[in-house]
Amino acid sequence: MGILDKIKEIENEISRTQKNKATEYHLGLLKAKLAKYRAQLLEPQGKSAQKGEGFDVMKSGDARVALIGFPSVGKSTLLNKLTSTFSECANYEFTTLTCIPGVIEYNGARIQLLDLPGIIEGASQGKGRGRQVIAVARTADLVLIMLDAAKPDVHRSLLEYELESVGIRLNKRKPNIYFKQQKTGGLKFTHQVPLTHMNEKLVYTILHEYKIFNADIIFREDCTMDEFIDVISGNRVYLPCLYVYNKIDQISIEEVDRLAHQPHSVVVSCNVGLNLDYLLEMLWEYLDLICIYTKKRGERPNFSQGHELVMRNGCSVEDVAHRVHRSLVSQFKYALVWGSSVKFNPQRVGLTHRVQHQDVMQIVKK
Ligand SMILES: Nc1nc2c(ncn2[C@@H]2O[C@H](COP(=O)(O)OP(=O)(O)OP(=O)(O)O)[C@@H](O)[C@H]2O)c(=O)[nH]1
Ligand SMILES: [K+]
Ligand SMILES: [Mg+2]
To answer: Which residues form a coiled coil (predicted)?
Structure first.
């Protein structure tokens, strides 16, 4: 029996199994098995099978955004609208067959937008060019799931399922569970909050399925079985995701309003050019980018556009110094920072200090 059949079988069994106290260990075991098989599916199977031609696009710019959606929802049309790159658009499916990168310039940031082939149900299991597309999605900083506003709501969850089943977690935080495998000592399980989904026996059942017999596990929040399996599997990526409902020129205003109120959603029309400004604002927000200004001693910072450094929120003085010049970190003595990340203006800080949006920084060398 192939892996796909095994996965199908376990999925069927999970859906057949009623969720209650008596079945929770059995379900835990099934879910752990399922996660293992899916991990196997993602492992390379021969060199050529994995790396799809035309999908190896260099990362560039301040952030990377991947466009995921069913065929003909308007992904390429969006790339053409937001960037100076051309990608062919047509009213037949699978017009785009490779990964086409473009650059969005916004707020001084250069954001790489990747147009990709449409994916279909079963993409995660290798249908169409699904696996290559999803592999690219894993490398993105933000996923744009594009949907045809006129199509049924279920399309949204079908795409979520494809991404979920290969370990991509959308708009979720990494579960706060400490997990460390050890050489000896057995399993040591503790929790710092009351647990409503998990207990010691369930944790051990799942770990045994993974043949893990020595490890420290600390639950720092009330996590579920699925979240625990994600932590053990270790290869999950947690990505922000925006749902872009395109072609709103084709639906009623009431329907537009309903879709606009879905979580993490933006409604647009690429052809007509409706609401694309707002989409860009949301891109910026979901990418969690910040602007930092650097200045030289005795000079004023230059706040005009093009003079900011676009960085990820949460980055340190070291990250900024590295961006200014690769050799700067080794010559670094301290930095002076003005802005919301410090108590005094300016304040002397070290490499590990975390900067905030619109901070001004002056680096003092040794
Ligand atoms: N009515 C309407 N049609 C649109 C809109 N945006 C794109 N389209 C049309 O939708 C069709 C498909 O657009 P594409 O950009 O090729 O779609 P795609 O998602 O890149 O398609 P594949 O590459 O085949 O997966 C084209 O005929 C577009 O003109 C829109 O806002 N409204
Ligand atoms: K198309
Ligand atoms: Mg296309």
So the answer is: none
The percent of residues above 90 in pLDDT, for the chain, comes to: 77
3-state DSSP assignment of residue 144: strand
Atom of ligand 1 nearest to the CA of 115: 20
> Is ipTM over 0.85?
yes
Architecture (CATH level 2) of domain 63-90+97-172+237-286: 3-Layer(aba) Sandwich (3.40)
CATH node for 289-365: 3.10.20.30
| Cα-based distances in Å from 108 to 104, 238, 291, 306 | 10, 26, 8, 5
Atom number, ligand 1, closest to the C-alpha of residue 97: 23
CB 113 within 8 A of CB 79: yes
What is the per-residue pLDDT for 43?
Answer: 56
pTM for the model stands at: 0.85
Name the residue of 67, 70, 72, 151 to mutate for ligand 1: max ligand atoms within 8 A of Cβ. Answer: 72
Closest protein CA for atom 32 of ligand 1: 247
| CB-proximal residues (5 Å) to ion ligand 3 | 75-76, 95-96
Q: Using the predicted structure, report yes or no on whether residue 249 has a pLDDT greater than 70.
A: yes
CA 79 to ligand 2 centroid distance, Å = 13
Q: Express the helix, strand and coil content of the chain in percent, nearest 5 each.
A: 35, 25, 40
What six digits make up the tokens of 289? 């980018």
Calculate the CA dihedral of residues 183, 188, 189, 190 and round it to 10 degrees: -120
